[in-house]
UniProtKB/TrEMBL annotation:
Stored InterPro entries: Hydgase_assmbl_chp_CS, Hydrogenase_HupF/HypC
Annotated signal peptide: none
Classification via Gene3D superfamilies: 2.30.30.140
Name of the protein in its database record: HypC/HybG/HupF family hydrogenase formation chaperone
């Protein structure tokens, strides 16, 4: 399974950015997303920023990854998926029949 991790840009140049997540710093390529300002969130996969995220989406993905880690460790994970609790699953528009 391949997983992208949301990271916050600390500094950047024309082709790369120094990013941080969970105390880990990593210089990543920004060739796919272009230069990003400090404070921006990017989804990092295999050393490359593949998508720019807004703050809310970055927080949701980070929480889901924390929940996955908790579940794998046999700990409670429900609080990490608060946006999914007490609601029915919904299909994306492109999968709905008209």
């Amino acid at each position: 399974m391949c997983i992208g991790v949301p990271m916050k840009v600390l500094e950047s140049d024309e082709f790369s950015a120094l990013c941080e997540s969970e105390g880990e710093r990593l210089r990543v390529s920004t060739l796919l997303v272009g230069p990003q300002p400090p404070g921006a969130h990017v989804l990092v996969h295999l050393g490359s920023a593949v998508r720019v995220l807004d703050d809310h989406e970055a927080a949701l993905i980070s929480s889901a990854l924390a929940g996955l880690g908790a579940a794998m460790g046999g700990q409670g994970f429900e609080r990490h998926f608060a946006d999914l609790i007490d609601r029915e699953p919904q299909l994306p528009d492109h999968l709905k029949r008209n």
